[in-house]
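Listing S7. Sequence submitted for prediction.
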Amino acid sequence: MAIRISGVDLPIFKRGIIGLTYLYGIGKSLSKKILHSVGIDENKKMSDWSDSDISKIRKYISNNMKIEGELRADIQTNIKRLMDIGCYTGTRHRKGLPLRGQKTKNNCRTRKGRKKTIANKKKITK
């Protein structure tokens, strides 16, 4: 039996606090908060959860937070809005450069992509 929450199969042989982090938008601290508010022990393995526990978690997540596709779409619309209004961060997104003040002379290869080598102009000798 696999536990499926919002279209994602969760690993059943992990502890609850770790298993919930397989959902996009839920980290360790948020999963701890979810389990505490629902009333499930965070060290209890997910295979030991009852059907009522799973339904409580599903209901809590669907009512109180954005995860997976809804969260991804929300982030994309925020980035598009920044690009449309033309603010500094939006222009950096558009150019594919780092956004938060990092140096770009030597680093930031993740954002800029592979190095593009440009040949030097030859000096004219007389």
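Caption to Listing S7: primary sequence and predicted structure tokens for the chain studied. The chain is about 45% helix and 5% strand. The longest helix spans residues 68-85.
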